[in-house]
Write a structure and sequence with these properties.
- With about 260 residues, this protein is of the alpha/beta class.
- The chain has a seven-stranded antiparallel β-sheet.
- Helix 5 links the parallel strand 12 and strand 13.
- The longest helix is centred in the C-terminal third of the chain and has 14 residues.
- The radius of gyration is 18 Å and the shape is globular.
- The two termini are about 30 Å apart.
- The relative contact order is 0.15.
- The model has no long low-confidence stretch (mean pLDDT about 90).
Length: about 260
């Protein structure tokens, strides 16, 4: 069980993978605790921004203590983070959130679905699943032919691609691939934009299979302080007695039937 704390990390490298998409590698003890589906808060040097920017964990090398974060520039905070260079220090808060339940995939046909900036968390997930003997099918949905992380994903499972513009793979989205390629799943694990997750939930309910979805797109501060990421749940919280949950602390991963999205 990881404990949430602040820690100074050192930048190993940073590279641009695609327009607005950056690959940041950090040396930090947090890498040894990180699990697929969790995230860290990255602080900026701007004193007016008190809260860290939540960024999902793309990959964690526990032996070397290297954390890989692949993120999209979404505002001033992430724009500043994209300027970090080798040797600089950056403060992290972590490790945060609940990850994907790997035990649910044990011995089952598992399909991972990542859309856009929801693709990076699928890499650590695919790696951890393969290490436990479950090689997943990975469906990655992109806007166009900028297929960031595709080669990385191929190390851990069969990768099928969908592009919105039809330039590579199947024209459409991740569920278009499921239909056209006749992909069978006993368990789905997914991260991506909300319309994609709604469609996956509907598909999973219709097919009678379990789907675990990461709602990280809805997070703001990432630490439960701003209450900007509250989602409606299908069951009442035993403590607050209301039907809601904070995505950043109760999630970001939920069983699809548990949340009203």
């Amino acid at each position: 069980m990881s404990t949430k704390r602040k820690e100074k990390s050192r930048v190993i490298s940073q590279n641009r993978l695609a327009p607005g998409i950056y690959d940041l590698r950090l040396f930090t003890e947090m890498a040894k605790e990180a699990e697929a589906g969790q995230f860290v808060g990255v602080y900026t040097k701007d004193a007016s921004k008190l809260l860290p920017r939540p960024i999902s964990i793309c990959e964690a090398d526990k032996e070397q203590g290297v954390l890989r974060l692949v993120y999209r520039i979404a505002g001033e905070g992430t724009a500043e983070i994209s300027t970090l260079q080798e040797g600089q220090q950056v403060e992290l808060l972590g490790v945060l959130g609940s990850g994907f339940p790997l035990c649910e995939a044990q011995g089952k046909q598992t399909v991972l679905m990542g859309g856009g900036i929801g693709i990076p968390p699928m890499l650590e997930l695919a790696k951890e699943l393969k290490e436990m003997g479950t090689e997943p099918v990975i469906i990655a949905g992109y806007r166009d032919g900028e297929l960031f992380l595709k080669e990385d994903l191929e190390r851990y499972g069969k990768v099928l691609v969908a592009t919105e513009d039809g330039s590579v793979g199947t024209k459409g989205n991740v569920l278009t691939v499921v239909q056209e390629q006749k992909v069978n799943a006993e368990v789905i694990m997914a991260c991506g934009p909300m319309p994609m997750l709604r469609a996956i939930k509907s598909y999973a309910v219709q097919q009678g299979i379990k789907a675990y979805i990461s709602l990280e797109e809805r997070m703001a501060c990432g630490v439960g302080a701003c209450l900007g990421c509250v989602c409606t749940t299908t069951a009442k919280d035993p403590h607050s007695h209301v039907k809601n949950a904070r995505i950043c602390t109760d999630g970001p991963v939920f069983e699809a039937r548990e949340v009203d999205i």
